[in-house]
């Protein structure tokens, strides 16, 4: 997903823009000092084409967890938090989001103002989730076991992919009717998914698929995880000219997994009537069925 753009109805063309400047697994070691050019190109295209509405798919990682490991507990869009980042992914997303929000009110072809907003999904799960697939395959190779690496007390907010998509549909529609309210705003994407540690949440889906999580507390000391993450980062850098090495554990993913980040907000409901389309039970069932199908497919 990405920015969603649209003109005044009818019909209501809406543009969505996410931007791929720096993916977690393939991010460059160097962080550019300027916003990703793709985002600027999308904004300029809106201006030249007279497209009036733009929704940017941002990320919770624009806010945090930050590089200092500060927790964000049941926060909302207005909660004060020191957004300090070193990894290219949150840095590039933050730059792109700022560019989109600053473009709100800019005149497009025809003289109308450009109306922009940004959606910030928390950790997305559901069908097609590559990392969930990787965890399932890893656990299958280890005899149906995954080993706890993060304390159960470290909570994360997660959101089902179908509800993220539904929020995009709603905001793209309502942006045209409530431009004065929604323009220049940011919204966390949320639903009724429970707050749990990253690993315990994943086991809601992997457990019914035959995997078990070993250990009530981390089996490896944190300093060893830091060392392994740093080693993976070094290995990734050394292998970059030859092949794409994308380990699940690296300094950034370890820091994110080991820092509480949960969201509690109703801003999207108040501003454009958002309610989750999929309940937690439906989201869980759909994800379990997808993981099971993934296992059946890999067995052939």
From TrEMBL:
The keyword Oxidoreductase appears for this protein: yes
Keywords in alphabetical order: Membrane, Oxidoreductase, Transmembrane, Transmembrane helix
Transmembrane segments: 219-239
InterPro entries for this protein: 3Beta_OHSteriod_DH/Estase, NAD(P)-bd_dom_sf, NAD(P)_dehydrat-like
Top-rank lineage group of the source organism: Eukaryota
SUPFAM superfamilies to which the protein is assigned, alphabetical: NAD(P)-binding Rossmann-fold domains (SSF51735)
Classification via Gene3D superfamilies: NAD(P)-binding Rossmann-like Domain
One GO cellular component term: lipid droplet
GO BP term (any one): steroid biosynthetic process
GO MF entries: cholest-5-ene-3-beta,7-alpha-diol 3-beta-dehydrogenase activity
Family: Belongs to the 3-beta-HSD family.
The protein's name: Hydroxy-delta-5-steroid dehydrogenase, 3 beta- and steroid delta-isomerase 7
Organism: Oryctolagus cuniculus
């Amino acid at each position: 997903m990405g920015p969603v753009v649209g003109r005044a109805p009818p019909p209501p063309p809406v543009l969505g823009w996410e931007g791929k400047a720096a993916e977690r697994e393939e991010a460059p070691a160097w962080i550019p000092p300027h916003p990703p050019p793709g985002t600027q190109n999308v904004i300029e295209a809106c201006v030249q084409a007279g497209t009036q509405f733009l929704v940017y798919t941002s990320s919770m990682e624009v806010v945090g967890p930050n590089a200092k490991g500060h927790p964000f507990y049941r926060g909302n869009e207005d909660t004060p938090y020191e957004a300090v980042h070193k990894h290219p992914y949150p840095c590039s997303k933050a730059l792109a989001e700022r560019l989109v929000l600053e473009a709100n009110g800019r005149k497009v072809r025809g003289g109308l103002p450009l109306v922009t907003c940004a959606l910030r999904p928390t950790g997305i799960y559901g069908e097609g989730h590559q990392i969930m697939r990787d965890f399932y395959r890893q656990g299958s190779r280890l005899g149906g076991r995954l080993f706890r690496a993060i304390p159960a007390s470290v909570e994360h907010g997660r959101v089902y992919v179908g509800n993220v998509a539904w929020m995009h549909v709603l905001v793209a529609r309502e942006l045209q009717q409530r431009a004065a309210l929604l323009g220049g705003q940011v919204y966390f994407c949320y639903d009724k998914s429970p707050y749990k540690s990253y690993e315990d949440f994943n086991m809601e889906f992997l457990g019914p698929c035959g995997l078990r999580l070993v250990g009530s507390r981390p089996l490896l000391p944190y300093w060893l995880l830091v060392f392994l993450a740093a080693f993976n980062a070094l290995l990734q850098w050394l292998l970059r000219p030859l092949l794409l090495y994308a380990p699940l554990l690296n300094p950034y993913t370890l820091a994110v997994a080991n820092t509480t980040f949960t969201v509690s907000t109703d801003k999207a409901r108040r501003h454009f009537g958002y309610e989750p389309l999929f309940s937690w039970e439906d989201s869980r069932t759909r994800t379990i069925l997808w993981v099971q199908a993934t296992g059946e497919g890999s067995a052939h």
